[in-house]
What does this fold into?
Amino acid sequence: MADVNKEVTLAGWVQTVRKFGSITFLDLRDRYGITQLLFNESLNEVLDKNPLGREFVLQVTGKVSERSSKNANIATGDIEIAVSSFTILNKSITPPFTIQDDTDGGDELRMKYRYLDLRRNAVKKNLELRYAVGRSTRNYLHENNFMDIETPFLIKSTPEGARDFVVPSRMNAGQFYALPQSPQTFKQLLMVSGYDRYYQIVKCFRDEDLRADRQPEFTQIDCEMCFVEQEDILQMFEGLVRRIFKDVKNIDYTETIERMTWMNAMWTYGNDKPDTRFGMKLCNLKFPGHAFLTSPPALSKGEGAGSVDANTNAQNNLESTVLSKEEAAGNVETSTNSQNNADFKVLSFGEDLGEVYSKTSPPALSKGERAGSFETNLNAQNNLESTTPSPLERVRGEVSFREDLGEVYPDISHLINGVDFKVFDEAETVIAIAVGGCSEYTRKQTDELTEWVKRPQIGMKGLVFIKCNADGTFKSSVDKFYDAAKLKAIADAANAKAGDLILIVAGAEEKTRKAASDLRMHMGTTLGLRNADDFKLLWILDFPLFEYAEEDNRWVARHHPFTSPKPSDIATMIDNNPVIENAAEYLKHPYANIKANAYDMVLNGNEIGGGSIRIFQKELQQKMFAALGMSEEEQQHKFGFLLGAFEYGAPPHGGIAFGFDRLCSILGGSESIRDFIAFPKNNSGRDVMIDAPSTIDDKQFEELQIRLDLK
Ligand code: ASP
It folds into this structure.
């Protein structure tokens, strides 16, 4: 209103034209919104001769005037422009769909004409949010001394578990670049070069089959730091995410971010990126011992966080205790001579020095101090080198304690055993979920749930129900086998209250655990417990370092091959031969229990970031490559540069990468990352707008000296 009577010039696109007798109203759209234009009688004639259509590009000059009927829904709803002159800058043919929030265009059509789709307010809002997330990220990282450094796109393969996209080299006929699956090795090299805090908002390329909501090229917030431990990284990037919440959503996310071990997540939620906005925890009525053989205690929330902290402190203490040559040498002896002694020793180190450490090293990195502590540590390592014969021994020397891994998950299978119910007796795993307030589900509803778990994606043979009636009685689909007392015992174990419905799945371990997890999510959605406006962050820690690849009977890196084992597991890695003699019993191999110094950040059931403390010693890296079945030649061929760099004073380092597209989509309350990418690809990896991928000219093949031989 302050602009009333001002003469202005506007340019934009025609949204709608409404003719009323001798005057015409027109809605003009630009990036900032809609402005109403009024063409009076004198201009109407001109308009009649040059009719304006949707999406015409118009420039108008006129006076701002107060509207007689105001529109409270738009920012400029109080005013209109009384047009004195106008120019049609360009015409438009009728667009294939309406350019408005609830458009009539289907997905395919909108993607084909994405440049028109992007004119829609709904899409623009998403891109604005993406820009805001990027800006907030850059500001935070800049303020924390991170440097944005570009890394190349035409590189050599960096295995991150996916297939590479390859690019033929004309100048080096017969040779190929790979597009980076992430800048992983480059960011590590930057640490070796001393750029102690690096970041980049960067494209990554992975040639994967595009399940649901993946893109072959996607964006990461990629970060790396040196002279850090896990705790430093967790705190730094909790800070980043809190900042993004504040800047982008105006949310003060001040609550403590829960930390959960991988094992605990699998046990309690059936997957490693649980949605903790709601409870409905799994009750493991029966599980194969081997799957949970050596695991940290099944802790309650508070305890869990505590144990991780304590663990990190213990590690920190360990490092800060390697103070003098004598002491360091002492440690090596202890750890190499007797593992049992080492256990004992370190635990007492942790206890003795916990307090001192917390006083001298505040968690959020007092930079100098932390670097200092590592210097000491590195000096100690150098000293160690002269006293220990082999380089691997040296690496082991840095480790002087072992966590006390115990068997802890309770076995309550007696609750379901002994009644000759074959379905449970023959199952490897039986898992119950108590669904709050659903005991009155009808037959139709329970049948629907049974069908739901029987779908091929879930693959269960059926579903067992126990209704915990409000009056304290039970009604179940297995009444023939379980009497009221037994049903009550199961209900108690599952934490079910009167009025709840217990759902039970049974079958092979992996499949059943996944089914239970999917069912939990399904019920969470059905009951409205997964509100897009609620946000719940979580760290998952202590992943297994290795996964078993059945086809090749060997180990693969669960995160990537640069991830360090937990300090307490380095000795296990070094001391054991990675070869799996007995495939059927691979879980008994010591490597199956090695934990990774890795962490994932989870938001509302999505993994939004993941990273690790890296291996920084050449010998340990070689051992890792060998464990993954790489010969020495292959190691040299693929990673000679990295192994070489590790010989020139590589600092301890670690990092993380966030999935930028996914983070944006969650913050924007959408299931689809495509909505937050200006020019996305479809499920077949095609850009339907530019029609890529496509064939290339014969001349291009000739230059590349490549001949096609399509099967
Ligand atoms: N490069 C890793 C990834 O893309 C992230 C990291 O370890 O920093 O998953």
User: Anything to note?
Assistant: The radius of gyration is 31 Å. Confidence is low (pLDDT under 50) at residues 293-389, 396-407. The pocket of aspartic acid is lined by residues 160, 182, 184, 610-612, 655-657 (CB under 6 Å). The first helix runs from residue 41 to 49.
